[in-house]
Amino acid sequence: xxxxxxxxxxxxxxxxxxxxxxxxxxxxxxxxxxxxxxxxxxxxxxxxxxxxxxxxxxxxxxxxxxxxxxxxxxxxxxxxxxxxxxxxxxxxxxxxxxxxxxxxxxxxxxxxxxxxxxxxxxxxxxxxxxxxxxxxxxxxxxxxxxxxxxxxxxxxxxxxxxxxxxxxxxxxxxxxxxxxxxxxxxxxxx
Length: 190
Fold this sequence. Notes:
eight-stranded mixed sheet; 13% helix; Structural Genomics Hypothetical 15.5 Kd Protein In mrcA-pckA Intergenic Region, Chain A; 3 helices; 190 residues
């Protein structure tokens, strides 16, 4: 049996990939064809999430078992799980997290289940548009982020952060506070 899977990004208009993959393939094989179709290096802790019809995340399938979950929670690892174990019908929805630092993902939708056919390796049927950048740059120059048109939250480098300018200098003295007018009311009108 084959699956025809389409995936898109909510970051880049016109980006679309469509692949065909055998139902006996592992999630790691699906991971690899996604990376290949986007020209991404294979150097991130990617993961899949099975989603319900509202795109709410359900079961996670990770690249590696990091041992961070509780003992009563099932851990699924990409190279150990076949697609057919979790994909049963058309319209099955998945998220593929390609940027684990910013939790950015592709939205996958099983468009067709093709019985009676098989493939040795997955193929890209359609590639449209450029893939989003895999890992966002944490550019520390706010002007650069504005001119590039990014929506990144730009952190202030710690060596340039002037705490005294925001919170006051080290010369703060508790005796300088005028507490008049800050009395707690007993609930009666003035």
